[in-house]
Recover the amino acids of this structure.
């Protein structure tokens, strides 16, 4: 676990590629099937950017995004290897040929050693997975599926637009392909407490999931969650509550699952609350101190 009491992404990337690997975050210009007029307006915490960079909206092509970010990281970190992360909205929400054109944008760049595709679990099928698998074995390729909570009543409350069964089905289907799969979970969803977080950790641990990203729920401007917050219907977690929840989650998470992220990453200009979320370094340090003082290593409470 190289210094951390949990398995980090850097560890497996270094094992596979022998060098530090930097992630470049891409906006392919796709949308989300849950935000269209035929659906119910999206998750309550999501704004018009769909958790993305908004680069396409600023007229920056995929090729430009790739080259600009790689150049910047080569200058800053002397980086030699990269993961292309299609992050914004749902990156499987298009016909197969359009998706192929999008993903193929990485092919001229041999230094892109990995491909990560973020999407919803109700936006995947066998044909799309076959296409995505075709980018292996030369590259490390993984799917990123949002679960957020293993409780159906919470998914309803946050207007997630799919249930837990849909997530399990997507993960089961994906497990038949040569792909890693990363689950996204949010700590601090309305109505949830420690028992719910641990229930989610247990479900994730029981599935063929290889990676996880833990996010803090934060209130972003111009979202239904902001309205709930202003009306006093939602109170964000304190840093202490978040840190304790993450530590217990790690304790209840299967030890081989790579924890790719343990904090949120809000944009300062969009964030309403909690402001402490902006200081990621302090949050990470507090989590590491909590893990150490509670003698927690990943999976130590898995039964
Ligand atoms: S699935 Fe993602 S992009 Fe779609 S509404 Fe929910 S948070 Fe936004």
């Amino acid at each position: 676990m190289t210094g951390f009491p949990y398995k980090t992404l850097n560890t497996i990337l270094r094992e596979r590629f022998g060098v530090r690997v930097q992630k470049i975050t891409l906006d392919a210009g796709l949308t989300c099937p849950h935000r269209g007029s035929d659906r119910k307006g999206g998750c309550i915490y999501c704004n018009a950017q769909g958790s993305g960079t908004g680069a396409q909206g600023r007229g920056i092509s995929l090729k430009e995004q790739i080259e600009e970010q790689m150049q910047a990281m080569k200058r800053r970190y002397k980086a030699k290897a990269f993961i292309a992360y299609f992050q914004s909205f749902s990156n499987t929400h298009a016909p197969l040929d359009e998706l192929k054109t999008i993903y193929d944008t990485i092919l001229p760049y041999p230094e892109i050693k990995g491909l990560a595709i973020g999407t919803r679990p109700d936006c995947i099928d066998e044909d799309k997975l076959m296409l995505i698998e075709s980018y292996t074995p030369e590259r490390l390729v993984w799917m990123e599926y949002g679960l957020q909570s293993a409780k159906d009543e919470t998914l309803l409350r946050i207007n997630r637009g799919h249930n837990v069964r849909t997530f399990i089905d997507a993960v089961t289907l994906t497990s038949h392909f040569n792909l890693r799969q990363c689950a996204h979970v949010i700590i601090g969803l309305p109505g949830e407490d420690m028992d719910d977080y641990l229930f989610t950790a247990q479900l994730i641990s029981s599935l063929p999931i290889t990676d996880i990203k833990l996010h803090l729920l934060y209130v972003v401007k111009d979202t239904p969650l902001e309205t709930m917050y202003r009306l006093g219907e939602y109170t964000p977690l304190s840093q202490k509550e978040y840190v304790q929840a993450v530590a217990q989650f790690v304790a209840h998470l299967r030890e081989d699952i790579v924890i790719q992220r343990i904090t949120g990453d809000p944009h300062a200009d969009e964030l309403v609350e909690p402001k402490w979320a902006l200081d990621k370094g302090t949050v990470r340090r507090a989590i590491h101190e909590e893990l150490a003082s509670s003698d927690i290593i990943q999976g130590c409470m898995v039964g």
Remarks:
- Residues 210 and 257 are 5 Å apart (CA to CA).
- The first strand starts at residue 21 and ends at 26.
- The two ends are 20 Å apart (CA to CA).
- The beta strands are 21-26, 81-86, 112-119, 140-148, 180-187, 211-216, 219-220, 258-261, 271-273.
